[in-house]
Amino acid sequence: METTAVEYVVFALCAVIVLAGAFGVIWFRNPVQAALSLVATLFGVAVLFLNMNAQFLAAVQVIVYTGAIVVLILFVIMLLGVDVEEDLEEEPLVGQRVIALVIAAGVAGLVVAGVTLGGADLVSGARSVTGSIVDDVSNIEQIGRLLFTEYVFALEITAVLLTIAVIAAVVMSRRPSEVEPLPAENASMEPPEPMEPEAEEVFD
Amino acid sequence: MNILAAVGVDNPPLDWHALAPELVLVGLLAVLLLVDAFGGERSRWAMPSLTGIGLLAALIPVATLAYDGVVRSMFDGAYVVDNYALLFKALFLIAGYVVVLLSTNYIAEGDYWEGEYYQLLVASLLGMTVMASARDLISVFLALELLSIPAYMLAAWRKRDLGSEEAGMKYYLMGVFASAILLYGMSLLYGMTGSTLLVDIAGAIEGTEVPALVALAVVLVVVGFAFKVSAVPFHTWAPDTYQGAPTPVTAFLAVGSKAAGFVALMTVVLIAFPTQPRIFEPLIWALAAVTMIVGNLIALRQTNLVRMLAYSGVAQAGYILAPLAVAGVSGASAAMAVEAVSTYLVIYAAMNLGAFAVVIAVARKTGSAEIDSYGGLFSYSPVLAVCMSVFLFSLAGIPPLAGWYGKLTIFLALIEPGTLAGYILAVIVGLASVIALFYYARVAKVMFVDPAPDGDTTPIRVPMSLAAALTITVAVTLVVGVLPQVLARVTGAETFLSIGG
Amino acid sequence: MLLTDISPLLSATTAGESYSDFVRSYLTVAIFGLLALGMVALLLGVGSIIRPNRPQPGKYLTYESGVDPVGEAWPQTQVRYYIFALLFVIFDVEAVFIFPWATRLDSETALVDSSGNVFEILGPYGSYGLVKMLLFIAVLALGLVYAWRKKVLRWM
Q: Which domain holds residue A165?
C-alpha cells in the first residue's frame, strides 16, 4: 500500500500533537494539567494507529489508555493531593541535573543516529500484526486468530498477571491499622518478637 | 513467522505434560487465593505448608519431563521445554521452596499478611518458570513482568517500615525504567524483523549491512536486562532494596529474580543475537569487568552484612556475565558459556540462600545485621557460625566448596576461545576474587575471634523450617564442591543451542 | 509536492483506487470534527459579542445562593478509591481481549488473495476457544473474588 500525501499530513499533525502533549506532561506544574496533557499524547497515538490501518489498536488505545489509564493516573494524583508541590530548587546530588542532561542528550543522539543511519535500509516493510495482514479481513479477527493460536499461552499468563495486580493493589492500599501491629523495634531485619522455635505447632 | 501458515492452524496442539509445572503453579495460586479469601484468619497457619507442598508438586512434572528427555516445542517454537529450561525450572522451584522455608517463621511472627505473601511469591515463581521456556519476545516480556511485579510488592512488605517502603519504591521505579528500555529495544527488533520469535529474529538480522539500528536494539535489550541482574552501573537500586526489604524477600530477589534475569539475558543474546558478536561482546565485556571491580571494592567497605551481601551479589553478577562476553566467538565457546552460567547460577543460588538463612537466624536473637553483631557467634552458636563460613568461603571460591567449581567453569569458558579479551577478563575475575576474599574472611574473623558485643551468649534457637533450609543449602554447597560431576551432568547446553540455531 | 497531491483527494469520491481507504473512511470524521469545532467557536463567539457584560462579585461564587463551600475543591482522596479505578482498568483490558474472540464465535471467514482465490477458510473458535476464554475469565474472576472477600469493594 502506497503512503498517500494525506497520510503524511495526518502523520505530521499527530506527531505535533503527540510531542506537544508529551512536552506538556513535563512542563505543567499542576499534575492534573500534566495528566490531561497526556490525554492529548495518547489520543494522537490512537490517530497514528488509524493512519496505519490498525483500527482495533486505535480503539484499544482510546478505551484503555486515554480512558482507563488516565483515570487511574488522576486517581493517584488526587490521592497524593494536588496542593503539594515539589521543591525543584533542591538538588539531592550535586551536579545531578547536568549529568542527567548529558546522558539524556547522549542517549537521544544515539537513538536518532541509529534510526537515521540504519533505519531506512533495515525496516522490513512487513505489515504489522495489528494492521491488516490479509486484506478484506478485519484486523480484529486477525488479532483474535493470533491470540488463540500462537499467543494463547501468553494470553493466559496475562490473566494471571492482571489478577496479581489486583492482589498487589489491595495489599498496598489496605490501611496499615488493619494489617499488622506496629513492630516495636526500629531495626529493619527481624520480626517483632522472638518466638517459640517450633512455630508450626504453635499455630494450631 | 509466517502468519498465513499460522492462521491456518486451527487449534494449536497443547502438550499438557510440557505445561504441567506451570499449570500446577497456577492451580496452587488459585488454591492459595481461595483458601485465603474464604478461610480468613483460621487458614493462616496452612499457607506456608500449602505453598511448600505445591512447589514440590510442581517439581514432579519437571522430573518426569527430564526423565522423558524429549525436547518439546510449542506455538511455533515460542515455548520450548528442553534440558536447559528444565534445569532452570527446577532451580527456581527449589529456590522458591527454600524461600518458603525461610519465610515461614519470619512472616508468621511478624504478623504480616500471609495469604498474599505466598500468593505473590508463587506468582513470581510462575513468571520465572515461564521465563525458562520462553523463546519469543512476548513470552520473555510477559514472564519478566510476571516475576517482577509481585517482587516489587514483596520488597515493600513491611508497610510501616520506611526502609522497606524505600526498598519497594526504588526497586519498582528502576524495574519499570528497565522494562521501558527493554521494550523499546524489543519493539525495534520487531520492527526490523517482523517477528517476535527469537530464532526468526536471528535469521532476519544475520548479515545486515548497516548494523546501526540492530546495534541500538541489542544495546537497549542488554541494558534492560543489566538492570535486572544489577550489573554496574545499573546496580544502584540493589543495596537499598536488599537492605530495606524483609530478609526472606531479599534472599528471593538476590537469587530467584537475578537468576531469571540471567536466564532471559542468555536466552535472548545467544538465540536472537548469535550473529552479532561485534555488538554484544564488547558491551557485556565492559559490563562484566566494571561490575566485578566496582562491586567488590564497595563491598569491602560495608559494615552491614546484608548490604555487603548485596554488593557481593553485584560482583557475582559480574562473574556470571563474564562468560557471555566471549560467547560469540564460536559454537563451542557459546556452549561453554551456557554451561558456565548455568553451573554458576545453581551454585550461587545455594550459597546465597544459605547465607541469608543464617542472617535470618542470627537476627532472631540480635535483631541486627551489622557485621559487628556477629561477634562471638562461634562461641554460642557454633553450627550457625560454621554454616555461615561454608557459604562465605564458597562465595569466595575456596575449594572444596561449590563456589570453586563455579569459578572454574567460568575460567574455562573464558579461556576456551583463546582471545585476548577472554584472557584479560579471566585475569580480572581472578583479581576480583582475591579482593572478595578479604571481606568474606573479615566476617568469618568476627564470628570466630571477636567477643559477643553485648556479652549475651545464649544459644540461638533455630526453628525447624530454617534448619531445613540450612541443611538443603549446606548439602548442595558441599556435595557440588566435592563431586562437581553431579552438577555437570545436568548443565549441558546442546539442545538449547541447537534449537537456537 | 504535498499540496498538489492533496487537492484531488478532497474530492475523493470521484478519484480512483489510488487513494487509500483511510482517506475515504475518515474524511467524513474529519469534516464532522471540524464542523463541531466551528460550531462551538461560532456559538461562543456570537454569545460573547451580543451578551451584556456586568461583572459582580456574587457571580463568581461557587453557588450564588445557599451555603458557602468549605475547604478546597482539590481534597486528598481516600486510597481505597484507587482499587476501584484499578479494577476498572483490569476489566477494561479483559474486555479488549474478549472482543476479538467474540467476532468469530460461530462464523467462518474466507481469506482471499489478490487474484480473488480463496486460499484459506478460518473456522470459528469453537469449544477450544471457549475453554481458553473461560479459563482467562476464571483467572480474572479470582481477583474479583479476592477483592470482594477482602471487603475492599464496599463503598463507604
A: 135-176
